[in-house]
Amino acid sequence: MATTDAPPPMTGEDPAKPGSRTGDGSPSGAVPAVDVAGATPVRHPLRWLSVLALAVLAAQLTHFLVTNANFEWSTVGSYFGAQVIGQGIATTVELTVVAMLIGIVGGVLVAVGRMSENRVLSAVCGAYVWFFRGIPVLVQLVFWYNLSALLPRISFGVPFGPEFVSGQTNSLITPLLAAILGLGLNEAAYMAEIVRGGLLGVDQGQSEAAAALGMGRARILRRVVLPQAMRFIVPPTGSQVINMMKATSLVSVIALADLLYTVQSIYNRTFETIPLLIVACLWYLVMTSVLYVGQSFIERYYARGATRNAPQGFWDFAFFRRRAAAGAPLAGERDARHEQEERTP
To answer: How far does Cα 73 stand from its chain's mean position?
Structure first.
């Protein structure tokens, strides 16, 4: 007589499922507990070797700075707070602010033009970016400074019609104006790409939702897209401001009395080249550090509400420390919660 195997008893649980239990009452899919009471911390000898090597290099650098008399630290201290140096710093800051304002405003306009559905406008804005990004800024500065050789006289009026205002190019294009034009127009090309990248980083659904509410395209850009794009635009813009402050040193070739030109005019008379260059380096470090602090606060302002991992302060920004996500459980809490879910039938 043929016999059939009796079906397994119905226990209400599938042994194959992660939540099922074994004979001893423990979850069948649970990871066995590991005793870490006697675990030995992992040693990192290479870390200590790197710290030792850096300490030796720092000691050598300090010894070099202190014992080398050619630095002439007394001369550095006497010129660091000199009035003539302060005038050069003022020119540098003024040039940076004006050039960046032109670059930011022009960059927004060029970026919007590049994203326009008007192909002619988009092509013209694309050609602008191509032209100014393809020519070194030093060449542009020299070109604007020598514009009178190409255009001896500048006039403003109706095209192919009467002139309203006119003047000699040498009188209108001063070294300061040549520097502003060269740096500002060049910066607008780079800012256009930064702004365009930020605008493209905003989800298209935001614009569609705003359009469904009856908002116009200009208002959508101003009230919806641009505020959300700022968190993508601010970090590279901060870097551009710092680069602009350093790029102002190029205007010394057109005899504009910025910080570097002022330092050069002094050491050309006194032959104290190294101490004066150290003064310039120290002041550039001070100014860029101030900009770096300002950038950290601006990034935190525009990152609020957009991410839970926004920098808490300047030092968190400087050392790339991020706060834990709000409401996120700790590691032990996550493990306990996961184990509780596994034990729940």
So the answer is: 34
